[in-house]
Amino acid sequence: MSAPRIREFRRVVFFTGAGMSAESGIPTYRGAGGIWKEYDWEEYACQRAFQRDPEKVWDFHDVRRKTVAAAEPNAGHRVVAEVERAQPDTWVLTQNIDGLHRRAGTKNLVELHGSLWRVRCDREGKVTEDLSVPIASRRCACGAYLRPDIVWFEDALNRASLAAAERALEGCDLLVSVGTSGVVYPAAQLPVIAMKRGAVTVEVNPEDTPVSELYQHRLRGPASAILASLWEV
Ligand code: APR
Predict the structure, then answer these.
(1) Which residue range forms the structural domain that includes residue 141?
(2) Distance from the CA of 63 to the center of ligand 1, in angstroms?
(3) Do 202 and 164 share a domain, yes or no?
(4) In a mutational test of the pocket of ligand 1, which residue from 155, 205, 229 has the highest number of ligand atoms less than 8 Å from its CB?
(5) How far is the CA of 18 from the centre of ligand 1 (A)?
(6) What domain count does the chain have?
(7) How far is residue 44's CA from residue 147's CA, in Å, rounded to a whole number?
(8) 158, β-bridge pairs
């Protein structure tokens, strides 16, 4: 079966993961050089770790902010933003917290796992945007610690984000999964919703994943090259 052509679809939804930003020089989580190979998430990326040692968790996230601040959106991000400009019903459901889709110009965006660039008062819950690198202050004016506004392991997904993602999937006729191992729920359930509703499904990844057999098209290669080929006239 030849690969679907994005221009022939009406409601394209991109479901993206860390591999989408790999060509921007940002490490993925699993596989070679993965962040969770070097760091134990139970020490750095869950509320328990934050309660136990907020400074250690902030040191880890400041390193991530520095890496991401030095990165640029890649050609893959730019193709995704161009698709939305040409086909305004396009949506991006990203698991990434790096903000690169937004910087590339994507507007119809659901950041399922939050963003490195937002912080939340651990006492009041107030969320603010903060682009400082390193973070200008780790504490809220009320004195409590700020925490990254990220969905950490063991956190529930933000209900509004999940609802927005499900709305985006209504009428989806092409689901393109890009650069995700597809193993983290409930986000990983979203492509399955599109599949059950009859969307054509594409997995873009240099290698097989534990969910590859769910996809009708498995396009093996880096995100930017494959996305360019799916979009070319
Ligand atoms: N282009 C496309 N895909 C790539 C590229 C590339 N250039 N390089 C690597 N990949 C693929 C890898 O083969 C892998 O399947 O990207 C995928 C990255 O998988 P993970 O590291 O597991 O990242 P992700 O799926 O986004 O993780 C989901 O887990 O740790 C949590 O909350 C975190 O959002 C994250 C979630």
Answers:
(1) 27-70+115-150
(2) 19
(3) yes
(4) 205
(5) 4
(6) 2
(7) 12
(8) none
